[in-house]
Amino acid sequence: MFHRASRVYVALDRDATDRAIALARTFGTRGRVLIPPEDLGPKGDLNDWLRVGAKGGPAVFRSILEEALATSPTPWALQIQRSPTDLAPWDLEDHASVRDLLCEIGHQGPLSRDAHLRLLAERCGVELATLQEAARELAQSADAEP
Fold it and tell me: What is the domain partition of the chain in residue ranges?
């Protein structure tokens, strides 16, 4: 159904962000996570957001939607943004979710892979080249497993 789409936006309530990330991943690098604004509260009911936008008329709704689409991150970028800030660089290899993330990123094309790894490098204070090597090694070892 989505084979021809260049982007697939997954929009769920704010309290379902983990599910949205998982669903967006199924579309590969075309997947994006559209997150309702924080001012809708912790649950961030998507229906409320759409109703608020619709009250301003079609032009207001369109601008709200365009802004949301333009700022929708990939599921990997969102996971990097949500990763613990207290992880020391030397703990990254032992952290299962970071290892899985690096492995997934290692399977992406070079542009997407490096963009995501650059975000992770900034977040955790590790050199980009080191993360590139780790992602490559984890992807290769996953491919070699039976």
Answer: 8-70, 83-144
- 43's enclosing H/E stretch is none
Work out the burial of residue 113: count CB atoms within 10 Å of its CB; fewer than 13 is exposed, 13-18 middle, 19 or more buried: buried
Burial class (CB in 10 A: 0-12, 13-18, 19+), 10: buried
**Backbone torsions φ then ψ of 71, nearest 5 degrees:** -105, 10
Mean pLDDT of successive 10-residue stretches along the chain, which has 146 residues: 84 87 92 80 70 68 80 92 83 84 94 95 92 93 84
Position of tokens 């159904």?
1
Distance CA 42, CA 15 (A): 6
pTM for the model stands at: 0.80
Q: By C-alpha distance, which of 10, 21, 76, 91 is closest to 46?
A: 10
